[in-house]
Amino acid sequence: MPEEFHRVPDLWAFLPGSWRTERTVRDLASGDEGRFTGTTVFGPLPAPEEGLLQREDGDFLWQGVSRPAGRTLRLLPGVAPGEADVRFSDGRAFHALDLSAGRFTATHPCAADLYEGEFTVLDADRWRTVWRVRGPAKDLVLTTDYARTGGA
In this predicted structure, what is the pLDDT of residue 1? Predict the structure, then answer.
């Protein structure tokens, strides 16, 4: 039976606002598991740049120790309204993103590691990313669930 996804024809209307963010990090080699809990906010990039600033803030619990954690990404407009060019905060390319079909896969080579991501939109207020990270010293699965907490 084919899986149904929630289509997102306009990424720029879907993402803005605040999202509750819960991520599990599983180290498949050691069996360790960590958890990030926090908030991700998608807001406008500073003028004159067009797009969204993705700011994630929260706490990461790993091996019994909790630490503040966060990251910032920049989403720049793609060719169609459902597409974006995702970049690190310093402008380096990360991956493409196209949620128009409700599901998208992306890859990102990072030094000796390979990140393979799957993005799934569950409904109008929930979406998920799963990143599989493989490399000489990494064997991880990072699963992040986003749930809308406020309006755009």
Answer: 38
